[in-house]
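Tokens as discussed.
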């Protein structure tokens, strides 16, 4: 199998290993933790759907370092230092894997989860002049996890449309894959919550190309005329 190079996520260590290398490292170092991976891969956020679990964990680790550095400067006025470039060489490698798996089970964007949880711990006053380590981020607290889920759901009722940055979900890459259908349905459900739907339709159908015109007509027949009127460029005129 070939590895997908996730260019939409930017550059990070561990992004370009071969599939065989990912499998070898996973078997050697994380075999006991792979039991819940298959379920997590079905519910993970769309940007990570096509990544190998270890590849996704390398990206999660990269996100942790960047956000830890950002918040260390914000709260303590200093950069965050880390000895390891490769998280698999760290004593906390299992924690990073489990945290990434937790995010995938809940469908969280990694940067969103890490920023919110690190800042929550810093604001609690538990940590003086230091950034919480990964093992401090997730407590076995049902109330906290439920609150986190509610915060995440709130993103889908806000002003901004939540969508993947992976070009696989753009109209020109459409092949009817179940995850593409799932992504498109997520887009449609968000538009349904908008007051001025035709503005959202214009952006998603024509500008971002994340929603097929056929699906837009099916789901929003009454708004299509408003969208056409709003689209003054000839490029936007529907056949």
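Sequence:
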């Amino acid at each position: 199998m070939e590895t997908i190079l996730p260019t939409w996520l930017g550059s990070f260590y561990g992004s370009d290993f071969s599939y065989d290398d990912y499998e070898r490292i996973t078997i050697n170092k994380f075999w006991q933790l792979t039991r819940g991976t298959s379920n997590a891969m079905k519910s993970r956020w769309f940007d990570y759907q096509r990544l190998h679990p270890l590849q996704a964990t390398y990206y999660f680790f990269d996100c942790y370092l960047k956000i830890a550095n950002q918040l260390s400067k914000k709260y303590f006025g200093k950069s965050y230092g880390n000895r390891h470039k490769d998280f698999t060489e760290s004593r906390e490698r299992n924690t990073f894997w489990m945290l990434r798996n937790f995010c995938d089970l809940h469908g969280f964007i990694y940067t969103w989860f890490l920023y919110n949880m690190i800042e929550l711990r810093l604001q609690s006053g538990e940590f003086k002049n230091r950034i919480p380590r990964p093992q401090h981020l997730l407590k076995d607290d049902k109330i906290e996890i439920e609150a986190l889920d509610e915060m995440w759901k709130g993103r889908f009722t806000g002003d901004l449309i939540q969508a993947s940055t992976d070009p696989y979900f753009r109209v020109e890459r459409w092949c009817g894959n179940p995850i593409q259908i799932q992504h498109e349905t997520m887009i449609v459900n968000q538009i349904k919550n908008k007051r001025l739907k035709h503005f959202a339709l214009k952006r998603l159908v024509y500008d971002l190309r994340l929603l097929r015109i056929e699906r837009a007509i099916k789901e929003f027949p009454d708004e299509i005329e408003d969208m056409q009127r709003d689209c003054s460029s000839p490029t936007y005129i529907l056949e």
